[in-house]
Write a structure and sequence with these properties.
Elements: E1 4-10, E2 16-26, H1 32-42, H2 52-61, E3 66-74, E4 77-87, H3 99-111, H4 122-137, H5 143-155, H6 169-173, H7 177-190, E5 193-199, H8 203-213, E6 240-245, E7 251-258, H9 268-278, H10 285-293, E8 299-305, E9 310-317, H11 322-337, H12 343-360, H13 364-375, H14 384-392, H15 396-405, E10 407-415
Parallel strand pairs: 1-5, 6-10
Antiparallel strand pairs: 2-4, 2-5, 3-4, 7-9, 7-10, 8-9
Helix pairs in contact: 1-4, 3-8, 9-12, 9-14, 9-15, 10-11, 11-15, 12-14
């Protein structure tokens, strides 16, 4: 079908099957809230199963099948849809296959949600808007997550990546049920769709079933220009600094950087190795030195966003240790740049990453996330086991090269009332 792709993994390893359907569109502050709302409205009822009670009964008839909305930000691609988990036919009475029923129900939720006069019901839209608004507002309760998002917003203020996957309170407030219905129809007509299946059924049978389910899917003016803009260099020579005061008991320091010219697909294993050595594990330099030896923070870790080409260091500190913690975080990167990496550090990082990738194949949800994220960059992405094999080949020189490509871009610090914090505060 035009613009509809499927990744299928046939395996007898699991007692359940999983099926996800993901509608893809460019991440945008203008549409993020509408995109996020649509799956939650779809699950409130269809034209033949008009309310949540009826839908729950129908799911129970499919031996307790679970279908949940899934909203994701993958680089600057917005993915909205559903993830279904259901018993594999081999473990049901008479080996009954519920995949056709699950597929039909998913298709009905997506193609025939409950409407009146062709429009979403205003009371359902308002109800789901309120719930989504509560989710957006609640981000402040997770201070660590809030600080990370604020760093992203400041660092990527002119880039789509600054947009939260649920959108913002302001744009959500302005969503009207008529405009939302029109956006839903536009989305179905123009967006690429990625489908993932994992279970014992052969791929052709799954594909045939889904072709039947989505035969009425409208397709016109497909938006194939969905991608992530990767900026490899920082905007300014020195990191910008933003400090924000709120009621917090522990300072939250987040430092954002660009991965630089090393940000190429074939270098991802080396970037993963570098991150694990720098701050991605309990054997990392940030954990061992900044936290354990020097006691400059309550926690310190790093992670990479390879789709967008970014790295973030997140740390909880006492505000009086701000300068010392910042200097030591920078110094640990310089240590790697200078080749100060022991064989034990290389071995611990390699073993940890290889184990984590190979463990993915034991969890369907993890496999679904892995393949969806990777298929957006490569139509034939490596398997987790193949990625693990690539990591085993990463050398110390590769890690040093990755470290030397890093460019610090943004410093964000969230501190508490009454604390004295030096330097410029960017509002």
């Amino acid at each position: 079908m035009p613009g509809v792709m499927m990744t299928s993994l046939q395996t007898d390893r699991f007692k359940t099957g999983c099926l996800s359907i993901n509608l893809l569109s460019p991440l945008s502050p203008n549409t993020a809230s509408m995109n996020a709302l649509i799956p939650f409205i779809m699950r409130r009822g269809t034209m033949t199963t008009p309310n949540m009670r009826a839908m729950a009964i129908r799911l129970e008839e499919m031996y307790g099948t679970e279908i949940v909305p899934v909203i994701r930000r993958i680089g600057e691609i917005h993915s909205t849809g559903f993830y279904a988990s259901f018993p594999d036919a081999r473990y049901l009475p008479g080996k009954e296959d519920v995949l056709p029923d699950v597929s039909n129900f998913l298709g009905e939720m997506i193609l025939a949600p409950r409407t009146r006069g062709g429009l979403f019901l205003p009371d359902i839209v308002d109800s789901e808007k309120e719930k989504l608004d509560n989710i957006i507002r609640s981000r402040i309760n997770n201070r660590q997550g809030y600080a990370l998002q604020r760093c992203i917003e400041e660092m990527c203020r002119h880039e789509a990546f600054a947009t939260m996957k649920y959108g913002s309170e302001k744009t959500l407030e302005n969503v009207h049920y008529v405009a939302l219905t029109q956006h839903y129809h536009d989305l179905l007509s123009t967006c690429p769709i990625e489908i993932f299946y994992c279970g014992s059924t052969d791929p052709e049978t799954v594909a045939d079933q889904l072709r039947t389910v989505f035969v009425t899917l409208p397709r016109r003016d497909l938006n194939t220009d969905i991608k992530t803009e990767v900026r490899m260099t920082s905007v300014e020579e020195t990191p910008r600094v933003t400090k924000e005061c709120k009621s917090v008991s522990q300072g939250k320091l987040v430092i954002g950087s660009r991965l630089g010219s090393f940000m190429e697909p074939h270098n991802i294993p080396a970037i993963r190795m570098f991150n694990d050595i720098y701050g991605g594990s309990v054997t990392s330099k940030l954990f061992e030195n900044v936290r354990e030896k020097l006691s400059l923070c309550y926690y310190a870790s790093s992670f990479v966003e390879t789709h967008k080409g970014l790295m973030f260091v997140s740390s909880g500190i006492d505000p009086k240790n701000y300068d010392s913690a910042l200097d030591e975080i920078f110094r640990q990167l310089e240590d790697i740049r200078n080749g100060n990496i022991s064989e034990d550090e290389m071995r611990a990082a390699r073993n940890g990453l290889v184990s984590s990738y190979r463990a993915l194949e034991g969890n369907q949800g993890s496999m679904e996330s892995y393949y969806l994220a990777n298929v957006l960059e490569d139509e034939a992405p490596p398997t987790p086991d193949e990625t693990a094999a690539l990591i085993e080949k990463v050398t110390k020189d590769d890690v040093v090269a990755a470290a030397n490509s890093i460019q610090w871009d943004q410093i964000y610090f969230l501190y508490g009332d009454g604390e004295e914090v030096s330097d410029v505060v960017n509002e």
